[in-house]
Amino acid sequence: MDVATLAGLIAGIAFIITGIRLDGDIANFYDLPSIMITLGGTFAATLISYPLKTVGNVFKISRNAFFTKEDDPNEIIEKIINLANIARREGLLALEEAAHELDDEYLEKGILLIVDGTDPELVKNIMETELTFIEERHRQGQDLFRSMGASAPAFGMIGTLIGLINMLKSLDDPSTLGPGMAVALVTTFYGSVLANLFFNPTAEKLKYKSDQEILYKEILLEGILSIQAGENPRIIEEKLKAFLSPKYRKGGTEQQFDEGRMTIE
User: Fold this and answer.
1) Which residues constitute the domain of residue 6?
2) Which of 25, 75, 216, 237 has the most Cβ atoms closer than 10 angstroms to its Cβ?
């Protein structure tokens, strides 16, 4: 589980609720028509923008922001070195059995390609094409949440306009103006909270996880090609560690991305 995502969401909700209760009543911020306009409108706009199958996967996509397991790049490099040692001792054909025991489909596919004697350039093209399509699938999920993040405030404003129109129809009773204005603004509040606390941050977290996964798979691809070229395992290890910051190679633990490459602080 991604503790940071869950903690950020809980903290955001807690701070908003606490801020409301310090100077008001939380019940004032509940309005069913506003919820229907904001959530219903956002969902409807998303249905128009994306295929039904993609929208149906929204919960599965959002789960990736909370529960996707983060791989350790040092463990990935270790897998490659173990395979390189097998190939060096027993030859490339000996990798077939080891490949079927791998828990990474991308790595398994690459190893089986080189076992089959596929041309190195073709192996690289096949694996890079798969990387491209993985990145494209990830981008679709990110774009879906960005779209919802753009729609939610817009429908919040629509709800506000509806509330103002209803309020203006009751101008003959001044006592209704205050409550009417409050209800009108609640819809904008819902849209802003949904966009800035959930939809847009989820899109950014999915992008971060996608960048991380692509980087790991680039390490795997470089390792696969190095094994096929018959390079020394020690040279392969040093080459793959070049993808990581020097501090992380020495055992650093706090990870972040900087300009598409992992760095450690």
Assistant:
1) 1-29
2) 216
**What are the beta bridge partners of residue 248?**
none
My answer on whether 24 and 76 are in the same domain is no
What's the CA gap between 139 and 69, in Å, rounded?
Answer: 19
Q: What's at 199, amino acid-wise? A: F
Q: How confident is the model at residue 1 (pLDDT cuts 50, 70, 90)?
A: low
Query: What Rg, from alpha-carbon coordinates, does the chain have?
Result: 26
Interatomic CA distance for residues 110 and 83, integer angstroms: 12
Q: Are residues 17 and 92 in the same domain?
A: no
The pTM of the full predicted model, rounded to 2 decimals, is 0.81
7 and 130 both lie in a single domain: no
Mean pLDDT of 139-165: 92
| CA atoms lying within 13 Å on the CB side of residue 124 | 10
Tell me the C-alpha distance between 215 and 144, whole Å: 23
Q: How many CB atoms lie within 10 A of CB 55?
A: 17
